[in-house]
Design brief:
2 domains, binds glutamine, two-stranded antiparallel sheet, Rossmann fold
Length: 274
């Protein structure tokens, strides 16, 4: 079938999700309908969805949703698709901030769908946080997620761009916890990534500049405006970047504590104290 011919790994699984989407049913309902013939309108919708997937559009954009930390997140092409690797940052926060009941103040730099900040607000019921993004379209997605997840009252989603001077002062910090999954791909490597990423995901969320590390230097330079004394910074990092990112944050006066590995065993999150 078309998805298999296009070289898509989980073709049967994805086909079932696309059919459920086209039919407006859950996968469980779809299975219950067994071998019913699909109405012509559903078949036509399915052909359209399958054509998008054959063109390598990510499933999350076609379905408009992706699960992260067991929570449903709305997504659009304005935001990076939430990835299981990024759940490592949530695990790290839960391990390091032992008291879940404290009114921690948090900030998420480049919040995108809001998956990091909003998940943390669910896990820390008295925390509040700011989510900054340079894309108004991304913020609209994050705002919708904040509402749907019931944390809108504790989340302030603000337009901000770390390429503009003064961005960090305007956030109202410093904060007890700073988190970020910044763009960390070397710009020259983006076109070599899988087509789903290179052709569909926002460049703003991927492009880390010539060496992939530009965003970390920008964040580190604003440590005093971002992190309280004794507060913590947790950043997602790319494969092999731990030594350089450690020295970037150490030079800015942070004490790098640990790295946390993703499911593939790759150091994926760096934690540091200020
Ligand atoms: N983890 C993403 C990827 O490998 C990159 C996300 C990012 O730059 N923060 O495609």
């Amino acid at each position: 079938m078309a998805l298999t011919a296009a070289g898509i790994d989980n073709a049967r699984f994805e086909a079932r999700l696309l059919l459920a989407e086209a039919a407006g049913l859950s996968v469980a309902q779809l299975i219950a309908h067994g071998t019913d013939a699909a109405p012509p309108a559903v078949a036509a919708t399915l052909r359209g969805l399958a054509a998008r997937r054959v063109g390598r559009e990510p499933m999350a954009y076609i379905l408009g949703e992706r699960e992260f930390w067991g929570l449903p997140f709305k997504v659009s092409p304005a935001v990076l698709v939430p990835r299981p690797d990024s759940e490592t940052l949530i695990e790290a926060a839960l391990a390091l901030l032992a008291d879940r009941t404290k009114p921690w103040r948090m900030v998420d730099l480049g919040t995108g769908s809001g998956c990091l900040l909003l998940t943390l607000l669910r896990e820390f019921p008295n925390a509040s946080g700011v989510g900054m993004d340079a894309s108004a379209d991304a913020l609209a997605v994050a705002q919708a997620n904040a509402g749907a997840l019931g944390v809108a009252g504790r989340a302030e989603l603000v337009l901000g761009d770390w390429r503009q001077p003064g961005w960090a002062e305007r956030l109202g910090g410093p904060f007890d916890l700073v988190v970020s999954n910044p763009p960390y791909i070397e710009v020259g490597a983006i076109d070599g990534l899988m087509a789903e990423v290179s052709r569909f995901e926002p460049r703003l969320a991927l492009d880390g500049g010539p060496d992939g590390l530009v965003a970390y230097r920008t964040i580190a330079a604003e440590a005093a405006n971002l992190v309280t004394k004794g507060g913590r910074l947790l950043v997602e990092i790319g494969q092999g970047q731990m030594p350089e990112i450690t020295s970037i944050f150490a030079s800015a006066g942070l004490a790098v504590e640990a790295s946390f590995k993703d499911l593939g065993g790759i150091p994926r999150v760096m934690s540091a104290k200020y």
